[in-house]
Design a protein that fits this description.
This protein is an alpha/beta fold and 403 residues long. It has 14 helices and 18 strands. Helices cover 33% and strands 19% of the residues. A hairpin with a 5-residue loop joins strand 12 (326-332) and strand 13. The chain starts with 5 loop residues before the first helix and ends with a strand. 47% of the residues are buried. It binds alpha-D-galactopyranose.
Length: 403
């Protein structure tokens, strides 16, 4: 499927919404996800193997590791919890999740929140029952269980509805997709429970243009992340230019974290985490929490870096300039402060291609005092200073009083 013309379709989607719906969704989104949601999701590590026991262990460990106190509160069950619907249409869990209400109570007893997963088609991406025709019933069931977050994944809605009902009309297919996301958004709002609504449709048809008006608190901007640098960097590159769409209650989602997963080196884990914080992304860890190495815990709980992500202004970073394979991103922070990330995306040390910091290009005048958020040390930045970084490493700085 090709991406449709964003502007035309977004205009159509907005035109079809009554003004009151727009006003309500923006009012409630000020409460839900005022800063990017933080937590953990089962998919990146467990995929379809996740069980009730794994969710409880993740909740226990998020507390024991200090992650909860650093801000990670959502424990999100991804795909494969679903069983069959009964004669009344009520969806039951499968044998891996014997009692969802009891699980929600357990997670809540730890001062955490519980998230769940479904989609607008007949089936989820894993082939389990999804919500088509049962949106309100499912939303009410989530609220009764005490669910706090819903990831809603397009998947079989493409063949089930879009391709079936509008076989050769891409614009009509996109309108069907908008309507499906709006339907669940309204169903969630009608429960009066604050439930974060996370759209997962891989960035099709520029969701940043229309998702907030449908009640979306976040929307995936790309296809799935994978735990290796090339994929993470490819996703990063696709975020440049999207900064104007992020803000309190509505966030671009470059997908869940792979910190601690796959073949990522320590430096790559640090750079991935730093850049997702610069992007004001939801910070949903996806690693094996009970077996987390101390250096991974240290990355995920770095308070200074989390404070960048969670800054109340909610301004996502822009890529200001690139010099060869070195990229410089900045974001304004509350109180007039500024975050600066200098990333060596190349495979060589910068020493072989000397990089010199251009402060004027960042709107800064002369020497600046900055805090290095990975070492904690203070450094003086001067115009044109050379900076040397190993391949894939990052210098993440906070300038509290930029001049
Ligand atoms: C899609 C989503 C993933 C995950 C799987 C589950 O691929 O993008 O994040 O939820 O489905 O089946």
């Amino acid at each position: 499927m090709r991406f449709a013309t964003a502007l035309t379709l977004a205009a159509l989607a907005l035109a079809s919404l009554p003004i009151t719906a727009l006003a309500q969704s923006s009012a409630s989104s000020q409460v839900v996800a005022a800063t990017p949601p933080m937590g953990w999701n089962s998919w990146n590590y467990f995929a379809e193997r996740v069980t009730d026991k794994d969710i409880r262990a993740a909740a226990d460990q998020i507390v024991a590791s200090g992650m909860r106190d650093a801000g990670y509160v959502y424990i999100n069950i991804d795909d494969t919890w679903e069983g069959e619907r009964d004669a009344t249409g009520l969806l039951h869990t499968n044998s891996k999740f014997p009692d969802m209400k009891a699980l929600a109570d357990y997670v809540h007893s730890k001062g955490l929140k519980l998230g769940i997963y479904s989609g607008p088609g007949t089936k989820t991406c894993g082939g389990y029952a999804a919500s088509l025709g049962h949106e309100l019933q499912d939303a009410q069931m989530y609220a009764a269980w005490g669910i706090d977050y819903l990831k809603y994944d397009l998947c079989s809605f493409i063949p089930d509805v879009m391709q079936k009902q509008a076989p050769h009309d891409e614009a009509a297919q996109m309108r069907l997709m908008h309507a499906a996301y709006e339907k669940m958004g309204k169903a969630l709002q009608s429960t009066h429970r604050p439930i974060v609504y996370s759209l997962c449709q891989y960035g099709w048809d520029s969701p940043w243009e229309w998702a907030p008006a449908l009640g979306g608190n976040s929307w995936r901007t790309t296809g799935d992340i994978e735990p290796h640098w090339d994929r993470i960097y490819t996703i990063l590159e696709q975020q440049a230019g999207l900064e104007k769409y992020a803000g309190p209650g509505h966030w671009n989602d470059p997908d869940m974290l792979e910190v601690g997963n796959g073949k990522l080196s320590l430096v790559e884990n640090r750079s991935h985490f730093s850049m997702w914080a610069m992007l004001a992304s939801p910070l949903l860890a996806g690693n094996d929490l009970p077996n987390m190495k101390p250096e991974i815990t240290a990355i995920l709980t770095n308070r200074d870096v989390i404070a960048i992500d969670q800054d109340h202004l909610g301004k996502q970073a822009s890529r200001v300039y690139a010099d060869g394979e070195v990229e410089v991103w900045t974001r304004p922070l509350s109180g007039g402060a500024m975050a600066v990330a200098i990333l060596n995306a190349g495979s060589d040390r910068i020493a072989t291609h000397p990089f010199h910091l251009n402060l004027a290009a960042l709107g800064l005048h002369g020497s600046q005092q900055a805090k290095n958020l990975w070492t904690g040390s203070t450094m003086q930045l001067t115009e044109n200073m050379p900076i040397e970084l190993p391949s894939h490493d990052i210098l993440l700085l906070r300038i509290t009083a930029p001049k």
